[in-house]
Amino acid sequence: MKRAILSCNGLDKPEGSVAREVAIRAAEATKGEIICPVLLNRAPARYKKVISDSSLIVIDGCSTRCATKLATGLGAKVERKALVSDAVKASGKLLESSIRLQPDGLTLAQSIVDELIRSLNEPSAPAEPVAEFEAPTEYLVVTHDKFEFRIPVVDYAFNENDIWVRVLDGVARLGISDYMQQKLTDISYFEPPKMEVAVDQFGELGSVESAKAVFEIISPVSGTVVGVNPAVIETPGLINEDPYGSGWLVEIKLADFKQDQTLLVDAAAYAEVVKRKAAEE
After folding, report:
1. Do 205 and 163 belong together in one domain?
2. Which structural domain, as residue segments, surrounds residue 20?
3. Strands of the 3-7 sheet, one edge to the other
4. For residues 142 and 269, what is the distance between their CA atoms, to the nearest angstrom?
5. Alpha-carbon span 250 to 36, nearest angstrom
6. Comparing C-alpha atoms, which of 94, 8, 72 is closest to residue 213?
7. Considering the domain boundaries, does residue 126 fall inside one?
C-alpha cells in the first residue's frame, strides 16, 4: 500500500519541530512521500494523484490541527493520525523551548513513529459485528429552529455526552446521537479504540473529527472492546447518514450493565437533554 505523509509546518514552536522530524522518519519507515502543506494548500492539483493513490498519515503539532484541517478540507482519505502535543502530555516531560530538537524531542519523535508503525501493522478490525441488532423504527423528534433531532425510543439508552448504547446478549453497541452528528456536521475521520482494551464507564473510546471539531467518544458502559465498525473507518460519513444504524462505532462485552444503567437516561430523558443543549447554543 502506498502511503503519503502530511505534517504541520509549525517550526516556530518545539511541537512543530517534532512533527517535522516525525514526518521525515515516518516517510523513511513507510517509503512514503512527504506532502508539503503550503504547496498542498496553494496548489492542491500538485498532489492530486498522490492523495488519490495513497493512504495518508497526518502529523499535527498542536491542538490547532492545521494538517488535519487541510486534509479534511480536501476530502483526503486519512489512515492514521498523530498529535505531538498529546504525546508530550502522555510522556510527562516538557519539550525545551528551542526550535532545534534536543535529545528528549528526538526520542519523543521516534516513539511517535514507532507507535504509528506498530498501529499500521496491527490486524484490521473485525469485518463482521459481534451482535445482530435490528434497525430502530420508532423515534422521538426534538425540533429546534429549522433542525430536527431523532431519538430512538425502544432499547436505546444515552449518556449526557451524546453517546447512545444498545444491549443484546451481554454485548453493547454504541454510537453518536443524531443531535451530535448534526452539530459536528460532516464527519471525516474515526479514530477507533484498540481491540480487547478494557474501558470504564465514562472512559474514552477514540474520537471522531469534522472540520468543526474533534469529538471524544465517552463510553456509556464498562467492559472490553470486542468490535469496531470497519465500514465507518472506511467511510466516516456513515455516522452522519445513519447514526443509529450503519453508522455505529464500537461494540463492548459488558462488565456490569446493571450498575452502568443507573447513570444512563432513556429516550424521553435524553430528549430533554437535547432540548436544553440546543437552546444553549
Report:
1. yes
2. 3-121
3. 33-35, 3-7, 55-60, 78-83
4. 12
5. 34
6. 72
7. no
Radius of gyration of the chain, Cα coordinates, nearest whole angstrom: 20
- Is pTM beyond 0.70? Reply is yes
Would you state the cell numbers that stand for residue 201, as one nine-digit string?
464507564
How many alpha carbons lie under 13 Å from residue 119 in its C-beta half-sphere? Answer: 17
Which residues lie below 8 Å from residue 101, measured CB to CB, with a gap of 6+? 14, 17, 18, 21, 109
Q: Are residues 157 and 88 in the same domain?
A: no
Same domain, 144 and 275: yes
Residue-by-residue pLDDT tens, the chain, 281 positions: 789 999 987 777 889 899 999 999 999 999 999 999 999 988 989 998 998 888 899 999 987 888 888 887 777 778 888 999 889 988 888 888 876 888 899 999 999 999 999 888 876 555 456 677 888 889 999 999 999 999 999 999 999 999 999 999 999 999 999 999 999 999 988 989 988 999 999 999 999 998 788 899 999 999 999 999 989 988 999 999 999 999 999 999 999 999 999 999 999 999 999 999 999 98
Q: How far apart are CA 175 and CA 184, in angstroms?
A: 14
Quick one: which of 23, 28, 35, 97 has its CA closest to 70? 35
Q: Strand, coil or helix: what is 30?
A: helix
Cα–Cα distance for residue pair 92/214, rounded to 1 Å: 23
Do 117 and 145 belong together in one domain?
no
